[in-house]
Amino acid sequence: MQLHESAEDYLETIFILRKRNGRVRSIDIVNEMGFSKPSVSVAMKRLKENDYIEKDDDGTITLTPTGEAIAWKVYSHHALLTDFLVHLGVSADNAAADACKMEHDLSEETFACIKAFIREHEKQS
Fold first, then answer.
1. What residue ranges in the chain does DSSP mark as E strands?
2. Helix pair 37-49, 26-33: axis angle to 10 deg
3. What pTM, to 2 d.p., does this model score?
4. CA–CA distance, 120 with 125 (Å, rounded to integer)
5. Per-residue pLDDT for 93 more than 70?
6. Same domain, 84 and 104
7. What is the pLDDT of residues 1-59, one digit of tens each?
8. How far lies 111's CA from each of 41, 55, 59, in Å?
9. Number of domains forming the structure of the chain
10. Residues 16, 46 within the same domain
């Protein structure tokens, strides 16, 4: 199933917030992403309906195994692409913003080639 870019961004944000804070609630997502509470609520409902997240009675949001796999993929692509762009000389802020755009549209082949290129150049350094 092809996810919309926004759904991938939400899953990645949940992943990052969990790493940072240990616990994730909708208000944390609102604060992190700068979206309205109703927008986040609708998104969380859709992610739950599609079995990407679970929400406890106390409001804690957790990723399901499927959601975790998608979030990890998006997060790892974002991190690698950001590092790659910074290595090319792009400022950290622009690299992070550009990586966010790129992470959703690159083919697996292109991503694998960028990853192999980085690994090869790390060996030479």
1. 53-55, 61-63
2. 120
3. 0.87
4. 9
5. yes
6. yes
7. 457 889 999 999 999 999 999 999 999 999 999 999 999 999 999 999 999 999 999 99
8. 32, 32, 35
9. 2
10. yes
